[in-house]
Amino acid sequence: MSSSIPSLESFVAHLDANLSVVTRGWAALSTLHSLLVRAQRDLGVEITYDPASEPTLLQYIAVSTIHSCEDACKGAAIGLLIGLLFSSPRHGLLIGAALGGAVGVARGVDAVARGWRVHIAWDTTGQPTAVVTAH
After folding, report:
1. Which of 13, 59, 70, 98 would bridge with 55, disulfide CB 3.0–4.6 Å?
2. Do 18 and 48 contact (CB within 8 A), yes or no?
3. 91 vs 81: CA distance, rounded Å
């Protein structure tokens, strides 16, 4: 892959098609870093910076907690509205929050399991080489 990557979409398409991307050189490493930051922000991709490492319990807990809190708030709001229709807003809120939290935990575990792995090493000329693999 060259040092200039046209877009995040083409990077993701290349990674999906080949299951790995290799970059060489400082400029390519800088571009790769920018793309990885955008992928985390825009696509919600979980990235681990070592392909040999398996996700740790801490990663599962941290990511699942964030997704769980987000979805519990959404579920609580929806449950409150449904509860108002049935004259029981408290029960609707609690049920919605519980269901939303459970969905969020499942989404968080899935995000960690599907994450990308990044390994960076230096070649014989001293240039950084980055390998990104998709799981």
Report:
1. 59
2. no
3. 11
Q: Which of 106, 108, 102, 104 is nearest to 44 (CA)?
A: 108
- Taking CB atoms within 8 Å and a gap of at least 24, the contacts of 85-93 are none
Separation of alpha carbons 104 and 107, rounded Å: 5
Kindly state the tokens that stand for 80: 């409150």
Nearest residue to 1 via CA among 115, 127, 129, 121: 129
What percent of the chain lies above the pLDDT cut of 90? 30
Residue 1 confidence (pLDDT): 46
SS (H, E, C) the chain: CCCCCCCHHHHHHHHHHHCEEEEECHHHHHHHHHHHHHHHHHHCCCEECCCCCCCCHHHHHHHHHHHHHHHHHHHHHHHHHHHHHCCCHHHHHHHHHHHHHHHHHHHHHHHHHCCEEEEEEECCCCCEEEEEEEC
For the stretch 23-73, pLDDT in tens is 877 777 778 888 888 888 888 777 766 656 666 777 788 888 989 999 999
